């Protein structure tokens, strides 16, 4: 029955190909012993070749030694080529400041891939079972997750790791070992499992099995399989769109097309963001939902030239054409623009996310209307030539109201404590003669409305 | 705090628009009382108009009467236009053979939509809360589900139902009612809830809160929201592809392009299948995963002219060009084909999913090779004209080996108990003179290998 279940899993998930060399990770516990024994039985059927490897982790020395001896003896009996490596895991963990579990896991996988390469194996078979899968899904669910977490462990990873036991329950594995008189060693899974996982195994799952559904593990595993299919599709779509929308992709910087992003479903945009971060930083560690939401808001924000800091020195910039993930500072200083503002017209300046409108009216009408920080009125007949909205230029000067003389724009910025990188995002309104308005900050004496004013131009700027 | 939470929900999920008329479903219990009171408070803020409607369900008559009076009084105090309807739900349930819960639910929604239409409201606000959402997700998880189940209840349905309380916990709702001295009626939720839901509420969630995570309800709700986004994208994609791949769409029949389906990710194909069934049958009730998997296998099967029965008289046919969902019987009888089989050549007959090969060889060589049901050998020099592989024709006769005379093909089919609709899928091998082989069933005397045979033609048919 266990063999049949394993065959089903192998065939449904295409875990094995003709002539595969398969290295079994053999701890000596019931799961890996069952896995080795069953795969060995299927060696001829699938035309494969089975190997085994064991890590003597030297945790609780005598017991670890006995595990290694047991593993060697089993492989000898089963006629399976056997590899063993002894490493002082407790010493390594201490040196690297890792937990015993982390260290054992890392060293075990290092050893497995080393042997895999040496013997030219295609696959590493590990012994996670149905119970492990159900626990993993529930643990992630309790901690908070999405489809990527709920799909559980994969049957098959791109690096060659396969999990042929993942539809087989622990209970059936233990029976299989009994029936075949395999006498596996004590189950060291407890060594590797977190506190929460143990509570899920020992308290929560039995509670649900008793009160709600005896099949809960199967139910969860089936759910994970359905979700994995959806997740695979979503990831593949995101990958395709990433390649379509990426404008720049170097070790330091990834730039995505901002207009394309705005037209893409948020389900995919979130995946594109994660892909960009993972590609650059190598990991998504430290990236929470709140970071992703912040970046989504950045994309939706009408302003350009925005910046967000992520953990580990990664930054996200929004510019007129791109969403840029980078480890390098980007200076917005050099974004220049220069537009003619028609009387009774408007312009939209995407570079700084502003819309500027002008309206010509009588002085009487203008006086009845409010002005404010972003709405100012000027004597229209004092204007020479075209009205221009532009970024600051070297040597710009103006005559701020109330000062009684001219002042360099640079000094005005310094007085206003506006940092260099933000100065170009403050628009300057000028005509052929000089500057009317440092928008949002200072207006000029030269264009003010006085007793001789007849026509007024009223100018409003709004963020887009 | 409850008001702030509700505002967050309304704004994040775009539940309300300027000038909306909103009808609140008011049972008189804490949830709906809190909802009505809070929305009424927000009436000016959102520039909306609040109404309330109550169903007097006449279950436990006096209490139901008191509920109705309470609801009327509350609406009077809050200055909310109030609609009430009394229906004898127990009598209705008995008549329609429904459970009390089903009947109450149906009649309540009927009443709500009736009032909604009468007053021209855009929205019906119902009072499901955070606890309800968490329970729903866990209940579905225990029963087995996919992303569509795990996304929980929607904040906003296309029919105008909205759920502004869905991020607010029951505990906060009860406090809100206390603080505002609303004295809601006994919570009738228990009346409406299933046995399993009650156990989740009273046993499982408290257990998880105590042992694992006090925030489990929030965690689950956030997970549901993330999954809803993914689900929405997947459904929208499936809808788009459905419209692309649908070849026929009537009340009786939906035909999807089989070649396109084969190139589509199974995550979407499953959704297309569900869409087709739901469109025709009006519901997915009775459709299990096993049906969907069967239809997937049908698509992958190399044979055409296949049929599957679904519940409620719906049938799925696979033909050469389409996957057909229909309530009408389709007869495959009239699929005709006629191909020349070259000596030392092969043909592929998609109509019946067969590949047929011919090989000319010496008698000596042929004798050394096995024959069987699907591999036969004939005297090549007895063949006149072209070899033809075709569907049967009216009046076909052959001289089956051992019979000593000719027989109508029709009678052979009858003897073999091959039903009429399958007869055209059995290929006939013939030459200018007559029939060599009713493939897979009978060979002819006329072409048999004898002592004078020199060259042999060996013919094999395989399913694709």
Automatic annotation (TrEMBL), chains A, B:
Binding site for ATP: 27-32
The enzyme's E.C. designation: 6.3.4.19
Catalytic activity reported: cytidine(34) in tRNA(Ile2) + L-lysine + ATP = lysidine(34) in tRNA(Ile2) + AMP + diphosphate + H(+)
Keyword ATP-binding: yes
Classification via InterPro entries: Lysidine-tRNA-synth_C, Phe-tRNA_synthase-like_B3/B4, Rossmann-like_a/b/a_fold, TilS/TtcA_N, tRNA_Ile_lys_synt, tRNA_Ile_lys_synt_N
Major subcellular site: cytoplasm
PANTHER family found in the cross-reference section: TRNA(ILE)-LYSIDINE SYNTHASE-RELATED
Lysidine-tRNA(Ile) synthetase C-terminal domain mapped to chain residues: 387-459
Cellular location(s): Cytoplasm
Gene Ontology molecular functions: ATP binding; tRNA(Ile)-lysidine synthase activity
Domain comment, as recorded: The N-terminal region contains the highly conserved SGGXDS motif, predicted to be a P-loop motif involved in ATP binding.
CC annotations in GO: cytoplasm
Role noted for this protein: Ligates lysine onto the cytidine present at position 34 of the AUA codon-specific tRNA(Ile) that contains the anticodon CAU, in an ATP-dependent manner. Cytidine is converted to lysidine, thus changing the amino acid specificity of the tRNA from methionine to isoleucine.
GO biological process, one term: tRNA modification
One Pfam family it belongs to: TilS_C
Assigned protein family: Belongs to the tRNA(Ile)-lysidine synthase family.
Protein name as catalogued: tRNA(Ile)-lysidine synthase
Keywords associated with the record: ATP-binding, Cytoplasm, Ligase, Nucleotide-binding, tRNA processing
Lineage summary: Bacteria, Bacillati, Bacillota, Clostridia, Peptostreptococcales
């Amino acid at each position: 029955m266990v063999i049949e279940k394993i065959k089903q899993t192998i065939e449904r998930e295409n875990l094995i190909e003709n002539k595969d060399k398969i290295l079994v990770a053999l701890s000596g516990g019931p799961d890996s012993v069952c896995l080795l024994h069953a795969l060995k039985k299927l060696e001829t059927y699938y035309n494969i070749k089975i190997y085994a490897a064991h890590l003597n982790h030297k945790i609780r020395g005598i017991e670890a030694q006995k595990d290694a001896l047991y593993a060697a003896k089993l492989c000898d009996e089963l006629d399976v080529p056997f590899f063993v490596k002894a490493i002082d895991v407790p010493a390594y963990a201490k040196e690297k400041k890792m937990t015993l579990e982390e260290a054992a896991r890392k060293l075990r996988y290092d050893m497995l891939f080393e042997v895999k390469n040496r013997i030219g194996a295609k696959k590493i078979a590990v012994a996670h079972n149905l119970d492990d899968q159900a626990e993993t899904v529930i643990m992630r669910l309790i901690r908070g997750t999405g489809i990527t977490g709920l799909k559980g462990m994969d049957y098959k990873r791109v690096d060659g790791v396969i999990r042929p036991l993942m539809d087989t329950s622990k209970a059936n594995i233990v029976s299989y070992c009994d029936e075949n008189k395999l006498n596996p060693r004590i189950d060291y899974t407890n060594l590797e499992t977190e506190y929460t996982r143990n509570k899920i195994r020992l308290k929560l799952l039995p509670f649900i099995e008793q009160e709600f559904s005896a099949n809960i593990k199967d139910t969860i595993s089936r759910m994970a399989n359905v979700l994995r299919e959806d997740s695979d599709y979503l990831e593949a779509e995101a990958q395709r769109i990433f390649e379509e929308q990426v404008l720049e992709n170097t070790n330091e910087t990834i730039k995505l097309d901002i207009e394309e992003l705005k037209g893409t479903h948020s389900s995919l945009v979130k995946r594109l963001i994660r892909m960009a971060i993972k590609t650059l930083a190598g990991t998504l560690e430290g990236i929470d939902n709140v970071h992703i939401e912040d970046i989504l808001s950045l994309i939706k924000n009408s302003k350009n030239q925005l910046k967000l800091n992520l953990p580990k020195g990664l930054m996200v910039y929004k510019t007129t054409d791109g969403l840029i993930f980078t480890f390098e500072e980007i200076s917005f200083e050099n974004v220049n623009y220069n537009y003619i503002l028609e009387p009774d017209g408007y312009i939209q300046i995407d570079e700084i996310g502003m819309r500027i409108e002008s309206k010509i009216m009588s002085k009487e009408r203008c006086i009845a209307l409010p002005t404010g920080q972003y709405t100012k009125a000027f004597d229209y007949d004092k204007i020479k030539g075209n009205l221009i909205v532009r970024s600051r230029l070297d040597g710009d000067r103006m005559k701020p109201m109330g000062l009684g003389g001219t002042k360099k724009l640079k000094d005005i910025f310094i007085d206003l404590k506006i940092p260099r990188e933000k100065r170009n995002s403050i628009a300057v309104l000028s005509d052929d003669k000089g500057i009317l308005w440092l928008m949002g900050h200072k207006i000029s004496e030269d264009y003010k409305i006085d007793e001789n004013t007849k026509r007024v131009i009223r100018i409003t700027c709004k963020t887009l």
